[in-house]
Amino acid sequence: MDAIKDLIFSVADDALIMGHRNSEWTGLGPTLEEDIAFSSMSQDKIGHANTLYQILNTEFGELDPDTLAFKRAAKDFRCCHFVELPTQDYAFALMRHFLFDHAEGLRYDLLRDSSYGSLADLARKIHGELKYHTLHADTWAKHLGKGTEESATRMQTALNESFPLALGIFEPGDFEGELMDTAVFVGEEVLKDSWLATIQPILEGAGLKMPDSNKVTPAFGGRKGHHTEHLEPLLKEMREVLSSEPDAEW
Amino acid sequence: MWTTYEVFHQDKRGKQHVHVGTVRAPDPEMALVLAKEQFARRQTCSNLWVVKTSDVFAFSYEDEDMFATTPEKTHREAAAYKSRDKIEEYKKRKATTT
Q1: Residues 6 or more apart from A12 whose CB is under 8 A from it?
Q2: Contact residues, chain B, for A47 at CB < 8 Å
Q3: Ordered domains of chain A (ranges, CATH)
């Protein structure tokens, strides 16, 4: 039980924090259409987090989704460092979207075969949404990678900076072995290999060079509750309205 | 080159694609990707088309006078055919013969 809970918290917290970070672009996107598309995908991510928190609530006796999202201490979050990082420029936002969403999409693909029914059901339900997220990311990666010299340089820089953080997505949790033994999840290593094999040809097609994953130190810690200094301020901002009137009925 | 694309939305397979608006995009692939969230976010959708606006061949509004007398040509409206009367007459005839 603890193993499944730990996995769900990791996936849910990644989705919530990534969704929040991406939503920071609402109103600031490079074009009106892209602003709407990026915002809409942020909402999808927060929706996925909500569904996962509901599973924790109804099947594991955890507190309700709002409490889990808005009142939990940072150290109890299981998100990776990658999603915590403040947004810099749009090249970084798009590169993170590309790297993260491919990992997310592939994780749910693997979870479709999970022995834990609620996860398999969710994975099947949101398959089409995630397909769009990666299509959107691929289209931008190709467009900017093959765009001007400046756009290609900025995408390559974003890729180089993001890569160790992206590898942090695959930090095994405390219950990795148990999840594999019980066929809940095949494990982070399988996911990472599948991710590398998926993104490599797309990046190549976009004229970008993927760093060597063996020569990079992954940004681990998040899955064990050790976070960057960016998570606390993010949570504070996310909870600003709620904490202004903690007892209000919404 | 960023330009505008006309978006056509299909509600269900087999139904016609209906023009719903415009998006700006650098190529047709991106136009489709962006059209999806603009025009298929809140309604059912089975398929989308995008067509470069410059590829649409259209009349000039200066030629709008070509259509001016159309509303007067009631003989072209289906309602102009007195089918209702004929059906009623047929029904009456049938009722008396049986």
Answers
A1: A48, A49, A52, A53, A56, A68
A2: none
A3: 2-244 (1.20.1260.10)
